[in-house]
Amino acid sequence: MDTLIELVFSDDVNVVNALVKLVLSLMLGAMIGLERRRKGQIAGLRTFALISMGATLAMLISIYIPQEFFMVKNGDPGRVAAQVISGVGFLGAGAIIQMKGSVRGLTTAAGIWMTACIGLAVGAGMYLISIIATVLIIFILVNIEELEQRAGLLWEAKIIRLKIHGIVSDIEPARSLLKQYNVHTSDEFVKYDYDSQLTIVNFMVRTRNAPDTGALFAAIGEKYNLASATLTNEMNL
Fold first, then answer.
1. DSSP assignment, residue 74?
2. Which of 134, 150, 159, 206 has the fewest Cβ atoms surrounding its Cβ within 10 A?
3. Is the pTM of this model over 0.85?
4. Residues 178-190: what's their mean pLDDT?
């Protein structure tokens, strides 16, 4: 039993501690991925588990090469592992979805980067620190958003798109109605379609809570001859 524990916590890479590290990193990465999947993100349990295990394997290789090959006298155990930090940015970029008017996936991309760091820490034998980091990440992902909502710090960016029959030069009534419904306008874009005789207005808005779009659009419809009204994430002129 003592020999097994010594193998697990050995500074040298061996089959026993490599297996333990890979399994532990799989579990920690999967825990983070499970939370992301629960939020409906594309990168989920399998992705995060593989990222964590891959980073652990990279760290094991970094330690193993100078350990086993004596010709590498000045081998740097951090050389291979360092490439994980920069290389994982490729996956993080893939998790970020850039849409017209908004960017989504930044939290998942940050989670991917942190999961890779956890994998490296497990590979280096920092078991307790890796577990603590995983617990803190899950706490941030699960609870911080709720705390932001309670404190009124969570603003949501949306686009309100109005298509109005006719060429309308005065959109002040629409601005006033948005203020009445606690929708803050950060910018606006207007397009006149003279062929179809339509005015298209895109309001870039921020709101703490989802507006009552039914009542809002009905009120706007009383001011203008609306062809359509849409709440969306994409700008479209």
1. T
2. 150
3. no
4. 85
